[in-house]
Specification:
There is one protein chain. The chain is built from six helices and seven strands; from the N terminus they run ααβααββαββαββ. With about 230 residues, it is α+β, with helices and mostly antiparallel strands. The protein has a five-stranded mixed sheet with strand order 2-4-5-7-6. A two-stranded antiparallel sheet has the order 1-3. Strand 6 and strand 7 form a beta hairpin. The protein is elongated.
């Protein structure tokens, strides 16, 4: 199957930009909270300089709040770093559980805005496949968009990984509404191009409210070789 590289590339840039914007928004929120607490510490210092006693308990709570936000930013940056490095190698062996957990973290803010809970199975089955990691993340992201839209506000999207006899696996998105959304990111040539790039097949089981992405254990390189899992 010929993969329309220009479509995959354009969609990849769009996906990278969307995720980067979301991450920057999260960091700005955390910095705003830190700035607010820094202002409070400054006010407390000015009051102490005027002879008012320092409230040790309040100081401790403020310092703890700042530390919590610093840890939050550290986690966000580590996630961003992992996401950015997913483009380093166009084709390689990946752990599907780690990939799915990463995309779920990247989509945490989108889920919160839509008031949808993302619920990965714990623990997720550990399956390694050889694929295009960035395009797979893009594909999972589109499926999450579809699943969240279908589940609706207050809904829960259940996520799991089922190993397949051939060494591949199926990533499952459960908790979808019975009626498919009228507008879905799964329609159109962009989604089909990503399915082709990752040699992935999709099945939508409306009767059970489940969507599945079936991945082979490894895909062939465009040059004719294969990636080892």
């Amino acid at each position: 199957m010929t993969v329309p590289a220009e479509i995959v590339g354009a969609e990849g840039l769009k996906f990278f930009g969307r995720i980067s914007a979301s991450i920057s928004h999260e960091i700005r929120n955390a910095l705003a909270v830190i700035n607010e607490h820094a202002g409070l510490l400054e006010d407390m210092t000015l009051m102490a300089e005027k002879g008012m006693p320092l409230d040790a308990a309040r100081l401790k709570r403020t310092a703890g709040a700042v530390l919590k936000q610093v840890q939050r930013v550290d986690g966000i940056v580590k996630t961003m770093n992992r996401f950015a490095h997913s483009v380093d190698e166009p084709l390689k062996g990946v752990d599907l559980a780690e990939t799915l957990e990463l995309v779920v973290r990247l989509f945490g803010r989108f889920a919160a805005v839509r008031q949808v809970t993302l619920a990965p199975e714990s623990p997720l089955a550990s399956v390694s496949v050889a694929t295009r990691p960035f395009q797979l993340q893009n594909l999972i992201g589109l499926c999450l968009d579809h699943a969240m839209q279908s589940a609706g506000a207050g809904g829960t999207v259940k996520l799991s990984i089922a190993p397949l006899p051939d060494g591949g696996a199926e990533i499952r998105f459960g908790g979808l509404g019975v009626s498919a959304p009228t507008e879905t990111p799964l329609a159109g040539e962009t989604f089909q191009a990503l399915l082709g790039a990752t040699r992935t097949e999709i099945s939508i089981r409306a009767e059970t409210g489940e969507l599945g992405l079936r991945l082979p254990p490894k895909i062939a390189c465009d040059a004719g070789g294969e990636a080892g899992a």
